[in-house]
Amino acid sequence: MIIPRPTALTPHPGEFVIPPALHLSAGEGAERAAGLLTAYLGPDRPRVAYGPRVRLSLGEPDLPRQGYALRIDPGEVVLTAPAEEGLFHGVQTLRQLLPPAALDPRTAPPDVWRWPCATVRDAPRLPWRGVMLDVARHHMPPEFLHEFVDQIALHKFNVLHLHLTDDQGWRIEIEDLPRLTEVGAWRAESMVGPAGSTRFDGTPHGGYYTCRTLRDLVAYAEHRGVTIVPEIEMPGHTRAALAAYPHLGNDPEVTRPVWSSWGVSEDILGVHDEALEFCRTVLARTAEVFPSRYVHIGGEECPTTQWETSPAARRRAASLGLTDTAQLHGWFLSQMQDTLAEHGRRAICWDEAERNGELPADMTLTAWRDPAHGVRSVRRGHQVIMAPYRSTYFDYAQSDRPGEPAGQPDLVTTLEDVYRFDPLAGDAPIADPLDGRRPGVLGTQAQLWTEFAPTPDHVRYLAYPRLCALAEAAWSEGTRDYEEFRDRLAAHIERLRVLGALAARGVMV
């Protein structure tokens, strides 16, 4: 009935019919969740103080912070939770319990407004349940980002990790550094096919988000229980920044355009004072826009060849007592972690960054290679987001059937592959996000890289229905049954269709 599957759901006879005017009461701390529910039930349904009541309140201290309890009787609906996060999740359950046609209030017929009677007690398996969306390779319109946030909230994801900068484009306005968007947000063309291809489309591509646009997105997401975590790549994946400000690199006299190829550019930031100050400024401005506790600083796929031949890098390594310029990689990331700490934030980087120097244990890592790497990082004292590419990289094709849209080569990641992924398979403990000193698995997330997804419809196709399967892996406890999941998914697909979450070409299940 519901995706992700709740901890306990017991149906009862009868239904609660939602009247044209709704008696909706909200206790202290429940006002925003009540406002969200009101919006989902349609703008033409006024709130009144009489009739069958829907009541939202904070309570249920025996449930985890993100949990909730829901009771639907013919005469009353009661939703309680120990914190606002749980109320938001309960609202999404109420949303899914509506007939699918009601998910678009603009077109819903009048006879669909009802909830089946039931009791639900529910709480998530993992505290971090995220989706990473790459808007650097291909810029996505703000309207789509709002839709996408609302759709992932339906599946009880609580993090949208926004990949804002890369070699191929810079997407966030930094007012102190205007050339980042004047120059770095635009490329002359895009590669066609996987990295290494010799074909290009000849079509300019670009765009960026103003601070106001991003603040609006943050507020929209916050009112749905979703946190936006920004990612600013450094010290590699910075060709777009270097196109705007060449003096930040290791060949300051050489001007290069924003990269139009896929893969990894060898052009990386220098380690001189100007480059470090640039990063500190960008992180400070990013923290002003995004209130998230976390800021992702990339750190992966950073070739250090240019540092080997850079006099400034060799001097920096010598002054730090390092035996190899490659060790500057870990030092650089630690400097940026310190900067974020000064702003009251925690740094995340891709776990590959551990290769060239030990990272501080209080840096959160995104384990994208194999689960064993994530488990090893937990043993070293880190909190880890499990994101192994074989199970969570949705830029790989969903099937090998004829007509499947192009994706990254050499791997197929099916719906069943995602469903059978277990973020806790390595027996690592679950981390507490409120206590960064306790190592463990913080959660999991999907990765939607967009080399092969130039439009929102491409993203929709890559995302669904695989996000439904990952939502279950992140939220639901207990034994998994893929066939039972497919039965629920068959009904859920109609919800996605009504919400406009499916690609125009349809969805293959």
What does the model show?
By secondary structure, this protein is α/β, with parallel strands linked by helices. 31% of the residues lie in helices and 21% in strands. It is built from 16 helices and 22 strands. The chain has helices at residues 31-40, 84-97, 142-154, 179-182, 211-222, 239-244, 273-289, 305-309, 311-319, 328-342, 371-379, 389-392, 415-419, 456-463, 466-475, 482-499; strands spanning 8-17, 23-26, 53-58, 68-72, 76-81, 114-122, 128-134, 159-163, 165-166, 169-170, 186-187, 191-192, 199-200, 205-206, 227-234, 294-298, 346-350, 364-367, 383-386, 396-397, 408-412, 440-448. An eight-stranded parallel beta barrel has the order 7-8-15-16-17-18-19-22, surrounded by six helices. Strand 9 and strand 10 (169-170) form a beta hairpin. Helix 3 runs parallel beside helix 5 (211-222) and helix 7 crosses helix 10. It is globular, with a radius of gyration of 23 Å.
Task: List the topology elements.
Elements lengths: L7 E10 L5 E4 L4 H10 L12 E6 L9 E5 L3 E6 L2 H14 L16 E9 L5 E7 L7 H13 L4 E5 L1 E2 L2 E2 L8 H4 L3 E2 L3 E2 L6 E2 L4 E2 L4 H12 L4 E8 L4 H6 L28 H17 L4 E5 L6 H5 L1 H9 L8 H15 L3 E5 L13 E4 L3 H9 L3 E4 L2 H4 L3 E2 L10 E5 L2 H5 L20 E9 L7 H8 L2 H10 L6 H18 L10
Parallel strand pairs: 2-3, 3-5, 7-8, 7-22, 8-15, 15-16, 16-17, 17-18, 18-19, 19-22, 20-21
Antiparallel strand pairs: 1-6, 4-5, 4-6, 9-10, 11-14, 12-13
